[in-house]
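Now for a sample.
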Amino acid sequence: MTATSSVVGARGSREVRAGAVLAVLSVAAFLASLDLFIVNVAFEHMGRSFPGASLADLSWVLNGYAIAYAALLIPLGRLADRFGRKAGFLLGLGLFTAASAACAASTGLWILVFSRMAQAVGAALLTPTSLGLLLNATPPEGRTRAVRIWAAVGSLAAAAGPVAGGLLVELSWQWVFLVNLPVGIAALLAAVRVIPDSREAARGPLPDLPGAGLLGVAVGALSLALVKVQEWGWSDGRTGVSLLVCVLAGAWFWWRSGGHPAPVVEPALLRVRTFAWANLSAFVFSVAFAANLLTSILWMQEVWRFSALRTGLSISPGPLMVPLFASVAQRLSRRVEAGWLAAAGCVFCAVGPALCRVSAGAAPDYVTGLLPGWMLAGVGVGLAFPTLLASATVELPPARTATGSAIVNMSRQVGMALGVSLLVALVGGAVGDALRAAFGHVWLAAAVLSLCAALLSLGVNPSRVTRHSTA
């Protein structure tokens, strides 16, 4: 009886510890995921605090974060794998929390942009380490369930973000960042106590941080050209220089990736057909998603004059569709090939903004003007993105699955930065009827890009070799 009791007690202790680890790591992932929607809702209010700042300048509040996160996600994750995931997680969470305080205290727009980039560095460190620590601390039989819960918490953040952002902005936009402080500090203290450390058994080469910098320069230069083209014009030398920097930095990045022992993107992975198509689809899909999201928010705030809270409540039905239809996609995946499923989601995402363009008028009419299209877009995101993320790694070697998932997320972040830049390029400084027309152009562009993503998604269907080998 005593031996049996101690075995049961040890098992219960492991389960309690694994549960505590899951809770702490999920809270941290929630903080990083919350940022996307919560800052988008506060975007217009931030602009009011910085008189004279153009939409192009304000776009860097979103783009600075997305570019830094995309460039550093993989190399920082590899550094943490090498030197210790717990130290990396604590450093990332601490930096994210401290940078949130710096964002709230920002007295100028560019101070805010640089603080947001520091936030992104923290998020790029805590996101991959949180998953690695979770897998290490969870018994093998419970890992699938733990990862699903961890991912579901991220989806919950997307659903809660618009409402939370709307409520906080009613106080001031600074509260969008201040809310991270108590949660981040509590998670940091808990992590020190409950999370066991892990790292790779064999130390590999140091990751290509200069290559990550080149990727950031390339995406940043392209974003700069897009957001400034209305002001500069396509024939202006500054536009040409920005595009040239993009091309040169991108070519140098690719050249380094081919020869570096631990590149940001391994060229060999892109020779895996499903992985290459999934990345391309996720990139184009994310351009459309980011443009549609910010356009819908700005339409309600600048055309319909909705408050931040009303905007947040109005946006929330779309994200609520995502976890629901991600579950539907999971069930359908047993009978429908991934490419067709992702393509169907992208088509929903095309119909959504196209319907908004046709239905939304100058007079506020949320129920018939915006809600149907926005909910269809949410359905599409739920069907498409989890399917692309899951299918991207199907044909990769097991040792490259985590890296493959990180590269897809990197593609997603780059796409989102360019989606915001696309909106700025089409809207510029338009006002009144011209502003409404410009938003309509962005919705149309988002619809066309979503249809392109649907066509690209068909390449994600497993190859015949994979089907035969798994049959």
Observations:
- The CA atoms of residues 349 and 377 lie 4 Å apart.
- The chain has 18 helices and no strands.
- Confidence is low (pLDDT under 50) at residues 1-13, 464-471.
